[in-house]
Specification:
5-stranded mixed beta sheet; 7 strands; alpha+beta; 13 helices; elongated; two-stranded antiparallel ribbon
Length: 287
């Protein structure tokens, strides 16, 4: 198998395949001036990084970090950054292919892949709160609004509060607002709880006490993952729209360096989801 063929299977650029060969993580032999790569080894790597397989908590946050390309990404080891970039590119490509498919359930299938892949990013806790307290809870700086509570979701339900919080803050929120643990179908509060070692990276989702930064691909990716976990068709459609915005931002930043065919595919991904949400946001991200 050639470098170009391996890159196509793995969903990465050829340069990344050559890096894997140099690292020793991909078996290959030099034949003249070309590398001949073990096809079985390529399939093994493709299966390991297959989109839709649940990432570990650390891997999910590494993926968000490399999307942001800020301090959180710089703290990763070189190998962790490389794996996260490969997984992010593969995830975007897989979701894009599903959206591009001519099927009535394309958006649902795409959202399901996203939800499975990012499902371990945080523990989800569901509570019932007094409706009178929801506005105060959403305004609490310990809660980083996301999911349906983020204005950028185009849903922003007033009868539900959703966001990220550290495990340390969760007890304080539960005590302060008299939150009662309940089943998901009875909940009007959804907390995505992260451990202490992850909590410094919560700015990848939303700045403390602030709103989602529309220029940060990591924030759109987290929003997409949150919305993908909801059962409603609108939420799942908005999840894919958020992922399309993230894809556009990543392409604009140079993260997604793609051949013409892939760019055409990304444009179709964008067009298929543009009518689901804020046209101005979509155009701004894609320009």
């Amino acid at each position: 198998m050639s470098v170009a063929e391996a890159a196509e299977v793995l969903g990465v650029v050829p340069q990344r395949v050559r890096e894997r060969i140099r690292e020793g993580s991909l078996a290959a032999q030099r034949v003249g001036s070309q590398w001949v790569i073990d096809a079985e080894d390529v399939r093994r790597l493709a299966h390991r990084d297959r989109p839709g397989r649940p990432l570990s908590t650390k891997s999910a946050w590494d993926l968000l970090a490399v999307a942001d390309r800020g301090p959180a990404a710089e703290r990763l080891t070189s190998s962790s950054r490389s794996r996260a970039r490969s997984r992010l590119r593969a995830l975007l490509a897989e979701v894009g292919r599903l959206v591009d498919a001519d099927r009535d359930d394309s958006l649902d299938r795409a959202a399901a892949v996203l939800g499975r892949a990012m499902g371990n990013r945080a523990a989800r806790a569901c509570y019932a709160a007094s409706p009178r307290d929801l506005a105060d809870l959403r305004a609490d700086s310990r809660l980083r609004l996301s999911g349906v509570s983020a204005p950028e979701s185009n849903i922003a339900s007033g009868d539900l509060a959703e966001g990220y919080a550290s495990e340390e803050d969760a007890d304080g929120l539960a005590d302060g607002y008299l939150l009662e643990p309940v089943a998901r179908d009875r909940a009007n509060v959804i907390l995505h709880l992260v451990s202490g070692d992850i909590s410094p990276d919560l700015d990848l989702v939303t700045p403390e006490g602030g709103h989602l930064n529309p220029e940060r691909a990591s924030a759109w990716l987290a929003l997409a993952a949150d919305l993908a976990e909801h059962d409603g068709a609108r939420e799942r459609g908005e999840a894919v729209r958020a992922l399309a915005v993230a894809s556009a931002l990543l392409h604009r930043s140079g993260f997604l360096v793609a051949p013409a065919a892939t760019l055409d595919h990304l444009n179709r991904f964008h067009e298929a989801t543009a009518d689901l949400g804020d046209e101005e946001v979509m155009r701004g991200a894609w320009s």
